[in-house]
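#struct-help
A.M.: can someone run this one for me? Single chain, 457 residues.
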Amino acid sequence: MLGGLADRDEIENASSRLLSFAKSKPDLLGADVLFSRGETFSLSLLDGSPEENTCGAEGGISLRCVAKDGRQGLSFANMTDGVSLRDLMEWSYANCAASEPDEGVSLPKGPVPFDETPLELFDESLSGTADGKFRMKICETMHEIAANKDPRVVSVRSAAWSHGTAVSYYASTEGISFWRQGTNASCGVSVVMKDADAFEIGAHGKVERFMSDLDASEIARAAVERTLRILGGRPVPTGKYTLVLEPEVTASLIDEIGDMFCASEIHKGRSLMAGRLGSEVAAKSVTLVDDARIPRKLGTAAVDAEGVLTGHTVLIDGGLASAYMYNLQHAAKDGVKSTGNASRGFASLPDVSTSNLILRPGTEPPESLMKNVRRGVFVTELMGLHTINSVTGDFSLGAKGVYIESGELRGAVAGITIADNLMDFLKKIVSVGNDLTFFGSTGAPTVIVEGVAIAGE
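D.P.: on it. Structure tokens below:
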């Protein structure tokens, strides 16, 4: 069986057996084992009645064989009995033999001493407090607040809670082995609002590592308030406007930019940031960092998926592209050290990804910045971010928000399209607010962008 927190001996013994097999093969450089298991509990109400109430667990254990010429082979199983482990060994070794050699593949030397305790990744209260009755009470409270917040709410389509626990174990033939565990909790509300002939669907939610960092009542109120802001929205005349991006919109855009600094994307020729280190890619007010050491955040970890210590990497420094993120393989290809940004699941080979991505805040509150906007749009939603061309930077995105006139919010805006080039867009940023807010593992403040073309009526 695949165990949870209480079955560490079972997993460690299985891992030892798998690694011993790899050590017996003279053509292998080494191997590593990754075990992971997650448990999730969720509940959602549709107009106050239970819609979904689920709990489940999933996980597996994998063996990655690494040949001396850089070939890799991986296989995984959902059981740790003798037959499953034998199949795992045979398939992993066979997959390695059948793969193509690749440059830079290696395994880090151990041991790697670290302590995740100060990073606060595990909420003990979730295992005892967040039972079925608790989840129902939270969802009922969110539904009641949202339903009664404004008479124009015609349906609370979802009042949902979810929490989970994840545990993983990594071990390699190079002497590295460690256990990791973490928690997450999330809640969200989705509403439908009607005013005359206008309908709007909106939502708000948050996910945190600790249950105490969630305010379900505030999330329910915010879901209604955010939807009300854009209810009955109409297009603005086509032209150039100043955009005020609220923090959640900024965060969604920053997520797309962060991926462009992953060395794997650079090497695949899929990034606008390729070959731009040291050059101007954004306004001077823009500093973008990747930081895996912030306590309680979803992207926080003491070590990455290869057992390399994580850290803090400045990607854009005052508008200048300053660094890429690396795992071991791509660092070797570029002759640099890994930044501790390796990621992988038990059924995948190592890749590169962000940890906690942060656009550093400025010093002024967003209200002060908005007072200087003569004609603009306060953007509350961007649609189609996945369509941004990561090579050329060109984009055309649908948007919703509120019209700004002489620093004041005037009326709801919808049915508009924002078209630009990402590099040009970043250089048009004139101000960054002080209201840094996290959305998952991405933190961003309000941002002011001048001279952006909008296609409206």
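A.M.: thanks! The chain has nine helices and 20 strands.
D.P.: also worth noting: The CA atoms of residues 436 and 444 lie 5 Å apart.
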